[in-house]
Each structure stands twice: as C-alpha cells, then as structure tokens.
C-alpha cells in the first residue's frame, strides 16, 4: 500500500515540476519560486532513488545524467536539413516571388517569422518521448547530441498532451494525432542563448580571467557540443521550434506552428500574411524592434504557407524554392575609441588599430577595429576619446564609419604619426609613394613573430599557435621560421605546459610537413605582394625554385598578372642575402620542395576565376581554394566582370547580389562538389 502511495506521489511530483517548467521556460511565466521548484525536484529525486522501478524517461531527474562521451555519433537525417536563400533588398525579394510564381498557377499565402541566429537542431520523438536530438551537420548527416539536449529545459522530454477543449480549431485527424501521439515525429528549431544570459556568462568569465565567447551562436554551439553533459547543463540554452516535419493532418506552416505550441514548445513569434505587399511592413517592424527581442535576430524568414505548394516548388541546390530569408542591413552601433595601437606585420608594415570600448555588433563582441593606414585616420579626423559609429562590413569585419563630432571631448588632440616601431623602437619609414609606415629593422621581434606565424600556416603545421611561438622566441630556441624544422624534444620540454607526449606529437606533426609544394613554399617565404594566386602562377610558369631565383623582370612579366611592382618585390627578395640564407636554412633542416602537379587544360576549372561566399559545410574555404587551384582554377576575393563562378554556401553576403547583376554563373556547394568529381 505504501508503495502505491509513493508511486502516486512520484507521478504527481513529475506532473507539477513539468507544469512549472513549461510555465517558466516556454511561456515565460512563474507561479512559484526557483527554490520551491528545486525543493520539489529534490523530493522527487529521493523518492526515485528509493523506488528506482518508478523512474521513467520523461522524469525531470533524467535531464542530467550519463557519463561524458569520448565522441559524438554521426546520424543521418530522414529528411535533409536544407539551408535558406538570402536576399538583401526588396528588389531581390520581389525577384524571388516572381520566380516561384512561374512554378505554380495556384494562389498561395505566406508565413513570416524572425530569423533567429542560433544552431539548427532536429528532435525525434517516438510515441511522445524524446528519442534523439541531432545537429544539422552537412544537411544530410549530423551529430547525436541527445544527452546534452535533455539538459535544455525548454525541450520537453515528453510531448505535452493537450486538453480536448484546446483542440476545437483543429481537424479531427490532427486532434486524434495530438491525443494519441503514436509513431515517429520530427520537430526542428534553433538552439539559442538569450542576450542577458550571454552578457552574464561573459561577465563572469571576465572576472575569472577566462576567454570571452565571441558571440551567442558560438556559445550555443560550443555548449551543445560538449562531451560532458554537465557543462551543457550549466549553460542557459533555449530551444525555439520553427517547423513540424511530420504530417499530422496540418495543411499549412501556420497550422504546424499552432500544433507545436500545443505540444509544449517555445516558438518564434510568427505571422500569417495573405498578400506579398504586407511582407515589407512586417520586415520593417521587426527591424525596428530587433533590439527589444530577448535573443538575437538577423532578418525575416518568409515561407510559402501552404504545405502542398511548398513541396511542389521543390529544391534548388540545397535551398527550398518556397523559403527565403530577408536579411537586415549591417547593424550600426556607437562606442568610444579608448586608444590607438600600431600592429607590426610580417613585412614590417605598421597598421593602426582602434582600441574600442567593448560592444556587441551583429551578435559579436568587438574590441578592436583596423584603421588600415594613417590616411584613414586623417579621413575620419579620428581622435582618442571620440564617439564613433561602428558597423560590420559584410557582416564580418568591424569598421569605423564616422566620428560623432558633437560628442568629442574638449581634451582630445589629433593622432600623430609614430616615428618609432612600437616593439623594437627602430625608426619607421614611408617607402616610395605608399601611405604605409614600415619598420625596416631586420631584427624586429614583432616581424619575426608574424613571419613565423605566416610560415607555420603556409606549411599547415597544426598545434603551433602564436603563444607557443612567443615562448620559443622568449627562450631563444628559434630565431626564424626555418628553425621550426630543427626543433628537438628537449627544446619543447623547456616550455611551460609541455610534457613528453605533447612534445612527441608536435615533433611528429612537424616532420610530416617537411614536404611542401613549390607554390606553398613561396607563400611561406612571405614575399611582399605575393599571395596564394601569384605563388601558384609562378610555380606553374617556372616549375622550380632555382629558375625563380634566377629570373629577371622581363621573365617575371611573362607570368600573367605580374607587373612592375610584384616583379621588383620578387627580384629584391631573391637577391637579398638574408632571403638566400633563409631558403638554405629550410633545405638544411630537411624541407623538401616539390613540383606542382600537372594541370589538365581540359578540366572545366582550367583558367576559370572563382569567388566564394557564405559558409561551406562539406569543406572549409581553404580546402575549397586548394581544390580549385589543383584543378587549374583561380581564386578572387571579390566579384567582377572577370568572375566565372560564384560558389554559394550558407548565409551568403552581398557578393550573391553582385554576381546576379553581372550574370555570373552561381554554383551551390552541391553543384561545386559535383563539378570537382567530374573534373577529377
């Protein structure tokens, strides 16, 4: 009899705790204090310990548990998790609307909602119970993060069963499904972290001397992908649902959202719109209110509301035709310039950098903004103490737009050109007709450091970052980049934080990178004006380092794209005794320079210029560039009339608009990969 009473008490406690969880984490309401709720959870935990046979998968005590994982399992998505096409103007949105009208003669309406800046997640429920949670991954294969997702309070472990009086507006088919909850259901949404929570966590990390999270999306993604669920549980993550993938009798996206609400999910506040012309006012309303949202949004999602028409419209590449995101323009904020620092690059070029009062711009914490050169300081008439307008160029690079002169403090004074290198205190020079200052000291520690970092990246040596390079320089273990290849275990063991295993791993990594292609080696040398494209052109034209070293300006002019400035830089570099010693030191320390592989001129990549925009998911940008170059293609950083192909990843920028205007061939990532396979 006692056992039955305890079982009833356990069930009552579970219902009560889940009710208050739903109120607080989904509806943002609170009827009892957190300490009272904790007391109920503690009572439930003690009873379940006493009667473990009454523990069920949906019990609140089952949210946190399980041992840390060694790695995440890969899982296949039953339906691909596709990305969205982005548009940046009303004209682009109208072009999208006109395109989809050509594919259907049936009238349709729209469902619109804020575009949340988070991490996409798929939830699988079996007979109402959470079975699996998976990240988007590459759209077809993601990672199983179920153990971590269970710690997110706004994710129901068991779907809410609505009362019959809440279902009067639904069809009988939907009503029956919501009450019975049979079979496999899939819900998709976004894992996010609220603005206040993000700021509070970063404030705490700052006090503890820890690195700050750059932006909320990174914090959410990093928290969800922790191998230890206890770490995930300590972060206040939220789940916002935006799509019911399973057919339960709903005919529209709007009906699907109402079903998700009944099932106990937190929703993004969407709206049904029956006229295309109403979309702009909704977009403008969101743009105006974006700062008042509890989480970050970066645009408006517009979806064809009718599910049958949406399906009929189909998919182009990796984006559904009936879905588009109208992105907000670059966000502008104001902050104060606290100081100007000068950064010394590997060539000795000195770049002024504004030190800012830290501020969030487009979801990222910004502390610095490059000013490029002294002319930019003069153009802005910038002074320390000025209040400035800051934005992110291309939603990536922080840039100062203008000074608010009305707020300039009376104590300010113009920023003067520096006369000495801030690191080695050697006099600086302005070379030729350039507007850039240079430190010309060959022994400048800052130049050495940047040259070594540059070489390590070119050689693709993993595990050696700026901090380790600083330690190696401080201990006088290395003087320049070639010394990396002469490192011994005892050298590394001198450094703080290095043990036998770590030292052995790093030496193994260095040894595996001693063979390098000629073009990569030219990049590693850090020759002024010689980037990856020029290095590849030189390697293909000359075929060997010896021939490049002996070339004169006329021979260099034979290489496409090389003019007087680059030719002079190459001749000056290879005539320098210091450069000759550096090349010799590399070879003495075991570096072997290999020829570039032959390029088949029949390849569809040969002599074509490619530009990449957005985030690629099957490879990173460097890998994509390497593949293009290996097949004879060229890389450009901006779209022009000379661009042959624009490769479009997730969240593309304004390059997509420019490419459409210039009739450049646009490739989805899927089409790009297919093109590689065909050419290979």
TrEMBL record:
GO terms for molecular function: DNA binding; DNA ligase (NAD+) activity; metal ion binding. Its EC number is 6.5.1.2. It catalyses: NAD(+) + (deoxyribonucleotide)n-3'-hydroxyl + 5'-phospho-(deoxyribonucleotide)m = (deoxyribonucleotide)n+m + AMP + beta-nicotinamide D-nucleotide. Residues 600-680 form the BRCT domain. The keyword Lipid metabolism does not apply. NAD(+) binds at residues 83-84, 136, 190, 327. Zn(2+) binds at residues 421, 424, 439, 444. DNA ligase that catalyzes the formation of phosphodiester linkages between 5'-phosphoryl and 3'-hydroxyl groups in double-stranded DNA using NAD as a coenzyme and as the energy source for the reaction. It is essential for DNA replication and repair of damaged DNA. Its cofactor is Mg(2+); Mn(2+). GO terms for biological process: DNA repair; DNA replication. SMART domains: BRCT (SM00292), HhH1 (SM00278), LIGANc (SM00532). This is DNA ligase. GO terms for cellular component: cytosol. InterPro entries: BRCT_dom, BRCT_dom_sf, DisA/LigA_HHH, DNA_ligase, DNA_ligase_AS, DNA_ligase_CS, DNAligase_adenylation, DNAligase_N. It comes from the Bacteria. The active site is at residue 115. CDD domains: BRCT_DNA_ligase_like, LIGANc. The lineage of its organism: Bacteria, Candidatus Uhriibacteriota. SUPFAM superfamilies: BRCT domain, DNA ligase/mRNA capping enzyme, catalytic domain, Nucleic acid-binding proteins, RuvA domain 2-like. The keyword Chloroplast does not apply. Belongs to the NAD-dependent DNA ligase family. LigA subfamily. Keywords: DNA damage, DNA repair, DNA replication, Ligase, Magnesium, Manganese, Metal-binding, NAD, Zinc.
């Amino acid at each position: 009899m006692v056992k039955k009473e305890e079982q009833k008490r356990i069930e009552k406690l579970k219902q009560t705790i889940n009710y208050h969880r739903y109120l607080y984490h989904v509806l943002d309401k609170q009827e009892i204090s957190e300490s009272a709720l904790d007391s109920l959870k503690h009572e439930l935990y003690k009873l379940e310990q006493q009667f473990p046979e009454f523990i069920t998968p949906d019990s609140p005590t089952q949210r946190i548990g399980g041992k840390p994982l060694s790695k995440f399992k890969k899982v296949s998505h039953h339906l691909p998790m596709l990305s969205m096409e982005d548009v940046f103007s009303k004209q682009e949105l109208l072009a999208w609307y006109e395109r989809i009208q050509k594919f259907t003669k049936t009238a349709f309406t729209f469902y619109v909602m804020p575009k949340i800046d988070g991490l996409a997640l798929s939830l699988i429920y079996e007979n109402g119970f959470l079975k699996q949670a998976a990240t988007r991954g590459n759209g077809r294969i993601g990672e199983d993060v179920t153990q971590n997702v269970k710690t997110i309070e706004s994710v129901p472990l068991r779907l809410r069963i609505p009362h019959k009086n809440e279902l009067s507006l639904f069809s009988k088919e939907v009503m029956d499904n919501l009450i019975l909850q049979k079979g496999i259901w899939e819900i998709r949404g976004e894992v996010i972290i609220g603005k206040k929570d993000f700021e509070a966590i970063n404030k705490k990390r700052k006090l503890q001397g820890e690195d700050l999270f750059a932006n909320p999306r990174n914090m959410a993604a990093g928290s969800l992908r922790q191998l230890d669920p206890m770490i995930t549980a300590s972060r206040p993550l939220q789940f916002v649902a935006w799509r019911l993938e399973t057919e339960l009798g709903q005919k529209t996206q709007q009906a699907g959202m109402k079903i998700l609400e009944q099932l106990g999910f937190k929703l993004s506040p969407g709206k049904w719109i029956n006229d295309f012309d109403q979309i702009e006012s909704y977009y403008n309303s969101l743009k105006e209110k974006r700062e008042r949202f509890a989480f970050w949004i970066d645009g408006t999602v517009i979806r064809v509301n009718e599910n049958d028409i949406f399906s009929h419209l189909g998919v182009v590449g990796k984006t559904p035709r009936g879905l588009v995101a109208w992105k907000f323009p670059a966000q502008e904020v104001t902050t104060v310039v606290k100081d100007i620092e000068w950064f010394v690059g590997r060539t000795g070029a000195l770049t002024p950098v504004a030190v800012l009062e830290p501020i969030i711009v487009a979801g990222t914490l910004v502390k610095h903004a490059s000013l490029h050169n002294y002319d930019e300081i003069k153009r802005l008439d910038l002074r320390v103490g000025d209040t400035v307008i800051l934005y992110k160029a291309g939603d990536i690079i922080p840039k100062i737009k203008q000074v608010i002169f009305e707020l300039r403090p009376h104590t300010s004074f113009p920023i003067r050109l520096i006369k000495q290198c801030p690191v080695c205190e050697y006099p600086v020079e302005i070379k030729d007709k350039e507007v850039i200052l240079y430190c010309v000291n060959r022994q400048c520690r800052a130049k050495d450091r940047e040259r070594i970092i540059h070489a390590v990246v070119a050689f693709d040596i993993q595990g050696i970052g700026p901090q380790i390079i600083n330690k190696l320089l401080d201990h006088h273990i290395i003087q320049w980049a070639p010394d990396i290849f002469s490192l011994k275990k005892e050298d590394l063991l001198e450094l703080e934080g290095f043990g036998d295993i770590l030292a052995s791993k790093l030496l193994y990594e260095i040894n595996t990178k001693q063979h390098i292609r000629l073009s990569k080696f030219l990049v590693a040398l850090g020759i002024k004006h010689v980037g990856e494209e020029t290095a590849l052109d030189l390697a293909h034209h000359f075929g060997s380092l010896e021939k490049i070293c002996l070339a004169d300006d006329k021979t260099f002019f034979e290489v496409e794209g090389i003019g007087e400035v680059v030719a002079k830089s190459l001749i000056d570099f290879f005539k320098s005794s210091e450069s000759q010693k550096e090349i010799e030191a590399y070879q003495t320390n075991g570096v072997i320079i290999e020829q570039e592989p032959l390029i088949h001129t029949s390849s569809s990549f040969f002599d074509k210029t490619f530009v990449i925009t957005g985030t690629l998911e099957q490879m990173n940008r460097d890998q994509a560039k390497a593949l293009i170059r290996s097949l004879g293609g060229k890389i450009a950083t901006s779209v022009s009339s000379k661009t042959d192909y624009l490769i479009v990843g997730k969240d593309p920028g304004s390059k997509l608009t420019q490419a459409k205007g210039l009739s450049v061939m646009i490739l989805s990532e899927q089409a790009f990969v297919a093109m590689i396979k065909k050419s290979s």
